[in-house]
Amino acid sequence: AFTPDGNLIVSPIDASPSVWNLKDIEQPLATFADQSYTICAQVSADGNWLAQSLQGGAVLLRRIQDGVPLEKAFELKVQNSAVFSFAFSPDCKLLAAAGIFGEIHLFSVPEHNSAPTLIGEIRSSTRAIHAMAFSPDGRLLATGHSEGDVRVWNVKQSLAGQKAVTQVFGHSDTIEALKFNPGGGQFASASLDGKVILWNVAL
Q1: What is the pLDDT of residues 156-196, one digit of tens each?
Q2: 88 pLDDT exceeds 80?
């Protein structure tokens, strides 16, 4: 995971996540003794938070201070699932964490050093989610699944129990990346099948 300014990268090394300055890669800026490999990581758009999913099931949220994530981490409660994908909302107030069984946990991101709280769960399917992206206004959340389909959710309505507002098919393998355009009227999906597809959002 890169920081928004592109100067730092978080990567697992010898089972411990490390933070590297790309302008000086001789030594890491920080190394965390998490005792487990990082499955995925995401830095918030404001550069203040680092979310990590670790082998073994732990899900951590770390504050970034002066450009470097702190050793202290909040552990997020994600029941019975390894997290394969994260997405921060554009205003950085929500964190979506998606699991191997297709569930999406939504957490409020604290403004300072208070603990994050679980605000709800969206049950998408029984298939693993490998990619997620919020629309620029934060209203929609796109999820990419292991069987190649993409679902788009109205976050507020889905937390109240409503199903995905749309589901699109076009890939034959796992979705690995999703991205909305700046206007929010389109999003792109990239898959292990080697295709990138641009979709219109008419919701």
Answers
A1: 999 988 888 999 999 999 999 999 999 999 999 999 999 99
A2: yes
Which of 56, 66, 60, 65 is CA-nearest to residue 41?
60
- What value, to the nearest 5°, has the Cα angle with vertex 199 and ends 130 and 163? 60
Residues 115-165: pLDDT tens digits? 899 999 998 777 899 999 999 999 999 999 999 999 999 999 999 888 889
In angstroms, the CA 194 to CA 183 distance is 26
The H-or-E segment that residue 165 falls in is none
Instruction: Return the DSSP state at 156.
Output: H
Q: What pLDDT does residue 3 have?
A: 76
Comparing CA positions, the residue from 65, 120, 124 lying closest to residue 100 is: 124
Q: Where are the beta strands (DSSP E) in 35-138?
A: 38-43, 49-54, 59-65, 68-69, 74-75, 83-88, 94-99, 103-108, 117-123, 129-134
Short-list 64, 27, 30, CA closest to 47: 64
CA separation for the pair 37, 9 (Å, rounded):
16
What's the one-letter identity of residue 188? A
